[in-house]
Amino acid sequence: MGGIIAFANLKGGVGKSTLAVNVAGALSPGSVLVDADPQATATAWGEEGLLPYSIIDAPLTGTNVERWITDVMALSDAYVCVDLPPMLGDATAAALAVCDLAVIPVSPSGADIRATNRAIDLIRQARQARGGDLPRALLVPSKVDRRTAAGAEIEAVLHDYDEPVGPVISQRIAHADAFTAGQWIGDFAKGSAAHSEIKALTSVIKRNIDKGKR
Predict the structure, then answer these.
(1) Rounded to two decimals, what is the model's pTM?
(2) In this predicted model, what pLDDT tens digit does every residue of 130-180 receive, in sequence order?
(3) 99: helix, coil or strand?
(4) Which domain holds residue 66?
(5) Contacts for 148-152 with beta carbons within 8 Å, 24 or more apart?
(6) Bridge partner list, 56
(7) For residue 171, what are the contacts with CB-CB under 8 A and spacing of at least 6?
(8) Which of 39, 79, 128, 202 is most buried, judged by most C-beta within 10 A?
(9) HSE toward the beta carbon, residue 68, CA cutoff 13 A
(10) Cα–Cα–Cα angle for 184, 176, 61, nearest 5°?
(11) What residues form DSSP beta bridges with 137?
């Protein structure tokens, strides 16, 4: 049982690739990561060959949408984690329109909240086009420092969108160190607080995907 999980936001620097890489690790075996972002952060993360799943370097552009969608949907017997580019356009809209779940990381800043508004608009447009409740959405407080006022309030702010809100992912140096080591957090720092947060998020993601497949 698998499905397509798109990690999306229309602003960079929110932890999108970090979540995609680590959730794919927590879902392995049985997962694959599609790096659709031309910046190729996830591909660079896996260059050492230490991640426990395959990474497919498949940048999504405005000219390859139909072929890209066909290729990704052919993988959907696995848990397909798609790291989308941080841009608004037909390509991103098309990818959101075929995924089962859109995971939207949001860090505690006004700019990120504005980008989230546009991402949710795209998701709701996709639901209307598909005539159902797909794609589901999961807003994830990301890179959170609860010592700041914005960090303490981010969950309440996200609940105002009337979409599910996932567990908090804190700002932790372990994620940057895991990137340098070329490992996902469960191999780099098993049992750490960073690992526990990723496991909690992955549990919520998996329940969302599996519920929709029944």
Answers:
(1) 0.94
(2) 888 999 999 999 999 888 877 788 888 898 999 999 999 999 999 999 999
(3) coil
(4) 3-213
(5) 148/108, 150/108, 150/109, 151/108
(6) 34
(7) 143, 144, 145
(8) 79
(9) 26
(10) 75
(11) 102
